[in-house]
Amino acid sequence: MSSSAFRTVPASADVVIVGGGVMGASTAFHLAEAGVTNIVVVERGELGRGSSGKPIGGVRAQFSDPLNIELGSRSLRAYREFRHRPGADIRLDSVGYLFLLDSAQQTSDFEAAVQLQNSLGVPSRMIAPDEAQHLCPYLSTDGLVAAAYSPADGHARPGLVVQGYARAAAGAGVTIATHTAVSGLDTAGDRVVAVHTSHGRIACSTVICAAGAWSARIGEMAGVDLPVRPVKRQLAFTTPISPPAPRIPFTIDFSSTAYFHNSDDGLLLGLADPDQEDGFDTTWTPEWLELFRTVARRRAPALAGMETAGGWAGLYEVTPDHNALIGRSTELPNFLYAAGFSGHGFLQAPAVGEVVRDLCLGREPFTDISPLGADRFHHGAETRPEAHVV
């Protein structure tokens, strides 16, 4: 769906969603499906060009925190049904996720997580290095202690998901205003009453912040602290591989965060640079590939020498405990937020869209997301560190 820029935005709306990425699009779809159609989605660029712009996104339910497992599982089911609801091919490939573990401590932590995942219906299991190598022939088993594998996980195309949700939402009457930047919020008493944009002011009853890495700035406009910082992450594509690469799981070397999986006619390679400074810069710098190659020489030697054909840089939206911020502002009850997913937003987007819809409509969500409230960092409440972070 190509949505052109609006010269003006509607003067009023029931709901203004700030951010046209996967979280904003999912929220708009779920609200519209529930009958709320006087919605404006405000996006400063094109849909899905922020953190959702990554070419391939992993989808998984392998987490260490029960709430993340629930959000991941429910979203996986929605992605499997996506071609029927809302109705789009998102190129879902259920190849599984394979975490490679090289210490007794990692193995013991993942064993506990697999038990928890199994109790919540996730078909993950611990496997030996030899079976991991069978699933992913590129692996060297030297130094591998064990691996964790779930065949239900995999990857899909975030851009197609954003377009699928947005097309269905627009078809239900939602206004999608692209190339429209938010410049301020008006508050009166304990409510947000309007959103100022580059194409006009929108009076509104509810504002939902789904602005990804930019969410802290939107929060500031309302006086709401959303502790989200932007961190650049980079990936690269190999040149076409002949004969074709075997179909492999989304494979992650847990100690180094190096990962790789199939991508069209080659492989996609990624790794989190531990020295990457915070910031909004998304310039792709091929030098980081040497970090990946260093890991690959030890863990998947054939990958170390593979030729690459360009890459991509995007932003992670990171919170202090690597868990999302989902909820309703305590100071401004009509300001809702879904942000700070720390790399697992795409894979949780369908379930989070449902949760935000329910919060907006005053319904009870399918699970208690109060532990993900943004004020958890101020109240001395127990934060929920997520161990399975890449």
From TrEMBL:
Entries under Pfam families matching the protein = DAO
- Per the UniProt entry, the signal peptide is none
Cross-referenced SUPFAM superfamilies:
FAD-linked reductases, C-terminal domain, FAD/NAD(P)-binding domain
FAD dependent oxidoreductase domain: residues covered: 14-359
Q: What transmembrane ranges does the database entry give?
A: none
UniProt cross-references to InterPro entries, sorted A to Z: FAD-dep_OxRdtase, FAD/NAD-bd_sf
Alphabetically ordered keywords of this record: Oxidoreductase
Any idea what this protein is called?
FAD-binding oxidoreductase
Species annotation = Streptomyces javensis
